[in-house]
Specification:
single chain, 2 domains, 4-stranded antiparallel sheet, disordered N terminus
Length: 455
């Protein structure tokens, strides 16, 4: 067998094997979607959540490529026209193949990277919504694998046999059926969206439930917590982007009118935007303005959450004049960081109120609560995800507060691990600065878009 013929035969055999295994499983469980050396997931296990490299950029790129080729002819566009081009025997553009390869690599990475996390954060409520999506996930990933193999077939030439041509046409027709058939991808295209949003479900969908799972796992909501949230959202958004690619391919192959294809793309974009409205923001961290870097952490206490800046806290002690200056910088009218869409103001000192011989603070007590007897404050907080402590901090440290007994607000709050309490001790010396701000609820009319989790 010649080199070219052998190569085509092996590619064709790969496609046939993928489609054969899928048909043997009723089209609901495709081995190609499973991580290597792992057993197939049972019906009780939810599909994996995902990871976020620059997944949002990939999703955007997919959308842009689909939109640019929506109404063009097969000869003038690549992405969205692969099945048509293969059906005509034309070669697929290398840029299109490269994008498809990136999509496949990303999906493979997403699928493999989250097994441990999903087992660690196993949650009945989330799993109850995710598990029923196994069939559509298998349809999407299985079809995408076969689609990628097809795209890599060499173009039809005068040396291509009639059997080879017939096989290509049959394989394309089979894939088209998997996409547009009675129980295919197109017929189930809103299953993921509905589960994400909780359409027709009590208590919210996967967006809300996964956020609550992540928030409920530790006392502080830090960057790791935020990443774990975003990984799930990005996984499902990526799957929907791949799903839309397959649907547009099918519609072009079946000669749908261009206005119907445009309507389909518009509906997809609307669906994604609707989901993004409910997805919490990523928690920003290690972002700078001038020489000041901030690492933000949130205490998800009710009825509101407290955000605090650990980087300034760890830098050491300040006079009250220094404290005032830093507060003024943080509360400027313009956004302090490039990632802000509006000023992140309302930074303040912790509240403080006299309570007998102690100065009490709801904010401080919310942050430093439930410390085990055998843990130092620093070690406990590090385990909870807060690692930015002053270098000289041991079991006792002092924090500037707004509390006063008499005179100006020059009181300090001393948190003593041994004493397990907040002690009133007036002073004019230097103390740690722990900048705090209350996070408004998602429905707050003034900051309705500023929220980082559901709890």
């Amino acid at each position: 067998m010649h080199g070219k013929s052998k190569s085509r035969f092996l590619i064709a055999l790969s496609i046939a094997f993928v489609l054969f295994l899928t048909s043997c499983n009723g089209g609901t469980t495709d081995p190609s979607v499973l991580p290597p050396e792992e057993d197939p997931p049972s019906g009780d296990e939810p599909p994996p959540v995902g990871s976020a490299l620059t997944t949002s950029m990939l999703i955007t790129l997919i959308g842009q490529n689909l939109a640019s080729g929506a109404v063009k002819s097969a000869g003038s566009a690549g992405f969205g026209w692969v099945l048509n081009m293969l059906g005509l025997g034309d070669p697929v553009a290398q840029t299109t193949i490269a994008l498809l390869e990136t999509i496949n690599l990303k999906l493979d990475e997403l699928t493999k990277s989250v097994g441990d996390m999903q087992r660690q954060l196993n949650d009945v409520d989330y799993n109850a919504l995710a598990s029923p999506l196994l069939p559509i996930v298998s349809k999407i990933t299985g079809a995408n694998t076969a689609f990628f193999i097809l795209a890599n077939l060499p173009p039809v030439t005068e040396d291509t046999s009639e059997a080879d041509k017939a096989f290509r046409q049959k394989t394309i027709a089979d894939l088209s059926q998997r996409i547009g058939g009675p129980d295919g991808i197109m017929a189930n295209q809103y299953a993921i969206r509905d589960a994400m949003l909780g359409t027709g479900m009590a208590g919210g969908g996967m967006i809300v439930k996964w956020s609550k799972v992540v928030v409920g796992r530790q006392h502080f909501f830090n960057r790791q917590s935020s990443d774990m949230q975003q990984e799930m959202y990005n996984y499902w958004l990526t799957l929907q982007a791949i799903q839309e690619t397959l649907i547009i391919e099918y519609m072009h192959y079946e000669n749908y009118p261009s206005n119907i294809i445009e309507q389909e793309l518009a509906a997809y974009n609307l669906s994604i935007e609707e989901q993004k409205k409910w997805i919490p923001w990523e928690l920003p961290t290690n972002l700078s303005k001038g020489n000041n870097e901030s690492t933000l952490i949130i205490v998800p206490c009710k009825p509101y959450a407290i955000m605090f800046d650990t980087n300034i806290f760890r830098k050491g002690n300040y006079t009250y004049a220094g404290v005032t200056g830093i507060l003024n910088v943080h509360n400027q009218n313009q956004p302090a960081y490039a990632w802000q869409t509006y000023p992140m103001t309302v930074w303040t000192l912790p509240d403080g109120r006299p309570d007998g011989k102690k100065l009490r603070s709801d904010m401080i007590e919310a942050i430093f609560k439930n410390i085990p007897e055998n843990k130092s404050v620093k070690n406990w907080a590090a385990e909870q995800g807060w690692k930015e402590f002053p270098v000289n901090t041991g079991s006792v440290f002092s924090i500037w507060t707004e509390g006063t007994v008499v005179g100006p607000p020059i009181e300090r709050m001393v948190y003593s691990f041994e004493a397990k309490g907040l002690v009133l001790a007036p002073s004019t010396s230097q103390h740690c600065l722990l900048l705090l701000r209350r996070l408004p609820n998602r429905d707050d009319v003034n900051h309705k878009n500023e929220f980082y989790f559901y709890h």
